[in-house]
## 1
Amino acid sequence: MNLTTKIAWRYLKAKKTHNAVNIISIISVCGVVIATTALVCVLSVFNGFAGLMSDKLAKLDPQVKIQPVIGKTLNADSIINVLRSVEDIELSQPVVEEQALAIYSDKQMPVNIKGISHDYNKLTQFDDVIRFGEFELGDSTDKYAIISILVASNLQSGTGFYDYLRIYTPKRQGVINIANPAGAFRQDSLHISAIYQTDQNTYDRDMVFLPIEVAKRLLSYDNNTATAVELKLRKNADETAVINRISSMLGDDYTVNDRLMQQASAYKMVNVEKWVTFLLLSFILIIASFNVISSLSLLIIEKDESITTFRNLGATNRQITQIFVTEGLLISFIGALTGILLGVILCLLQQEFGLIKLAGDKAAVIIDSYPVQLIFSDLIIVFAMVAVVGLFTSVITALFMRARLNK
């Protein structure tokens, strides 16, 4: 520790002549601590919500999804044959997705249908989100559909009911008879085997899962046609490397997306909110830094006699200025480290005990307390932000000190 740092540290710890300077110094440190703690906690809460959303969507989103760049359909068999050489792929299945009309008894609503294989629950974690019934798409006597909780609510349907769920899609080919509008649609009827709930609007709003052969028949697709091919990778596979390899094998005609890219808009929204909030709290930190500038300005005025003594002992103006600049940096760094430590402790307590609860009906929410997730890179960003603000206050202090010494 050099001489200027030792003197700055002594000034920071020592009791000031005027009590107001002590109070302002304490307030300046506390302001930096509180702002830094708030930054850590808020970023961790946004990380928690993003993680919660990712966990819920991962139940039904495939690990990797291949779709055509142009058009809606692709030749699933040819793609699956190409993928056989990729050892890290554990399972690959074609799916068919389209919009349709669902009618149950006297209720109807537009839905998104997704035709899936009978062992689709091996590719995803479908069983984990089923609330009523069980995963079943068909047996020797009947065909079944799995519907979302909001579809069940809107259609007033459920598992074990006698009525059929009827699915209608427009005919893709042929002449439409105006005298018989119903003839312009293809339809099929299925019983409901299960109702699922992910607590994510993307899947809970209007999704109906049904056998892929039923979806192909409704849409007049042949056996090789699908709208996407979904993949499950082996346990320790390098997901990024596999995606890059598949992309190079299939070329530019297909997109190969992981779960994050499949729900890019949802994750982007959470990220935008996270960093907008970070910027707003950073402005509060900048405002708090003016207390540091006030504290240093008063300290400079108070230490006039000491400054004269330093000059008589041969200290240069630069060395004297460095003392107060260093004190400003010490206030910022001590506040940053204390704030980060306090923020981490609060986040760990929230993770363990759920101290801060979410408002609302406990029966209607999937968690009762704010989720938090600490990410080391966020702590680095917060520390860097406080360091930049500390540097700003030091520059202001240096300018004030230089002007005073030149009088």
Note: The mean pLDDT is 86.
## 2
Amino acid sequence: MSYGILCLLPPAAMLIFALKTKKSFEALIFGTLIAYIIMYKTKFIGPWCDLLLSEVSNEDNQYILLLCGLFGGFIFLLREAKGTLGFSDLLSRFCKSECITMLVSVFMGIIIFVDDYLNIMTVGTCMKDVCDKRKVPRQALAYIIDSTGAPICALIPFSTWVVFYSGVFIQEQAIVDMGFDTGMSVYLKVLPYMFYPIAALLIVILFALKLMPKIGKMREAYEELGKKELVPEKPEMHNAPSVNIAMAGMSVDYPPENHNTGNILDFLIPIGILIGVTVYTQNMMVAIILALASCMILYIPRKKMTFTRYVELFFAGFADILPVLAILLASFMIKTACGEMGLSEYIINLCVPYMNGKTLAAIIFLVIAVLTFVTSSFWGIEAVAVSIVVPLAVALNANVLLALGAVVSGGVFGSHACFYSDATVLSSATCEIDNMSHAVSQFPYVLISAVLAAGCFLFCGVFGF
């Protein structure tokens, strides 16, 4: 059943609610309720509960939620063993200024390109203490790791994103007829047309070099950090918990920080296992479990912690990440609800009459960007879009590779910009700041990147590149 213009109401209500209240989870639940009231009217309670149960029981969703929870426990263990402190002390010797600290964060985001989850959680864990020492706001770090998550995974052809898109591209007969025999060969040709990932990376590098001005909420974050430097620290703050995720309602008490106990190997060995196993097996679940096992083998015999403390910390870390898991689950629900209402089909059909060979790529980018931003559905929308875009580009005698670049760019924009995407939520959680604070503070830079990308697509379409 088609709901026409009514399918725009749930995402619009959700975004207004989020911007007004600065609450992500509540806004997502509100959006799903609006959608189900439209679809089922007074009988919406039963279907809405079925939606919740179906998303909880979905294997793909379970994988993501469990992975994030395990990583929460992993971070707590690294903290207790003072592994992050040792790594922070090492980097602090090199990161002598705010600019160098941000550039190192960008560089680390580029070299850990295998998977955006791995990228975001690893770099955030590595760099947040260093950023604190060099007076870099957590909002700035969250923006950096979010900008080197999905964009880098799209630009370097050895990531999980590339595997997905390569498989989707080669399924189209028109692509095969163009002489391509593998999905990777198509992807490499599309790579120069991925203007949004390129623009996002360029903007974040300029930001790290202080050539991009502080805008909006990002400027406020820097101003608030400057004010904190002028306020004397209260003595009782020295006994505060060393980990306290801002989004969560619980924390774990740690022993007082001792800068003589930080051993960089307590950080590098587990993190090295996490990255190495992910690269080798392409399975992050196996990697995080082996990394947790390495913490046990590394820390307990050396009396960094007891076995009981290890278990307590793991569960406390898992519990501390529960607000993040709630937001992710609610984002899965709104994605399904918008799909049931036919939002993607409605917007695509609305835009098709305005497409021609010259404007096709720019319109595709904008449509996919809006859809992924609103629904938090990235690969699903792109998979459907490719099957529509390729025949349309052939029929309009447009550059098929440019059109495919627009599809990928739109998906990367959604992952980067959406207030409740997994990348955005994980970036804010890893940096221990409120999710909406991160989403709003980075949005002006995301918007600048999107405008640049749209201009490039339009230019290439008009001039036949």
Note: The chain is about 75% helix and 0% strand.
## 3
Amino acid sequence: MSERVQYIKIVKWSDEDQCYIGYCPGVIGPCCHGDDEVEVYRELCEIVDEWIEIARQENEVLPSPIIGLEIEELLRSALP
């Protein structure tokens, strides 16, 4: 199982941009966008996998997994 499952991934509609935006709180901010919500989610998953792989190669500490955290608290901290 991929490590990405430990991190919440969010795809939301942006009225300003008129497209879906994907991001992973605590890992990466808005990083992909498009007209198809499912495609944006797929791309976001790939980006998170790549981000984790690069962090491992560079011996960087990964953020704590999201599993077990209060989702409401996490979302409040991720929103502007």
Note: The chain has a mean pLDDT of 86.
## 4
Amino acid sequence: MNIIFAVLIFSFLIFIHELGHFIAAKASGVQVNEFSIFMGPAIFKKQVGETLYSIRCIPFGGYCAMEGESEESDSPHSFQKAAWWKRLIILAAGAAMNFVTGVIIMIIVFAPAKQFVMPVIDHFEEGSALHYDGGLQPGDRFLKVDGERIYVQSDFSTMLSLNPGDVHDLVVERDGEKVYLDNFQMEKREFPNPDGTKSERFGFSFRVEEATLTNKLSYAWNNVLNSSRIVRLSLHMLFSGQVGVSDMTGPVGIVDQMNAMAQASPTWVDALLNMLAFGGFIAINLAIMNLLPIPALDGGHILTLLITTAYEKITGRTLNPKYEAYIHGFGMLLLLGLMAFIMFKDIFAIVRR
């Protein structure tokens, strides 16, 4: 059931993306030839006006096929005949729908919360190396670690882990003012645990606050911002060589991760909320990744649209659309190859377990 639910969430996000294109196309007067839920051979079809609505047998994804989107068309309602700004809206609408969906999911996930752990120091344990004049103080709210914003409490440990070593640049809010602690030594010491054992830690606790309506909305939005940032950090790590293509994961790996997260949850309610939170994270990531200026993605189409529009305005000449088709066709081949590699890697990893 966890796997089925994970697949449905992933398919729903792709469907929402295509629905964004569909709504924008219809509102812009662009002819939609077919709007499909799922992929593969059709199990249901219904023609309504100019559009064929279909449900297909492979429960994954969907598509919105517009007239003149990938081929020449003489129809005045084709995609290529629409004003450039209408095409821009249509291309961006899928990502916009994913982003809005991600925000809504995050609000739903945190709606039942009773309290939140905030990135604010509540108190120190006796002997902490961080609490001294010129160091950290009770009530300090972490704003940045090594230049990265702290949106939620979990960001603190995440940002520390991105930069090896114990010396970090901190920015905290103290009594309404920013305090900069550059080259701050984040020293861990050994502290006793309630069960009699000892462990190394920083020796302070984060503040717990009641989850009011305002806090819930704020916490949900901060998680949206944090999810958005992860795309930038991941791309930086990829291009800097900190991670490789082999570390990437695709739909199969994502579904597997969602299933593992659900199985590790103590109750079915927690499992549902955890999977929804993961779905919200994926929705926001899909929105941002789709807008990257990469051929075959919406962002690539938007970039070429802006370039060709500027060229036509300046020179008065029209670029042959076949060149754009070549670029995006080549990009699609590379993208499909990458997706196939990641899919087989994820399947092999699951089988090997």
Note: The radius of gyration is 25 Å.
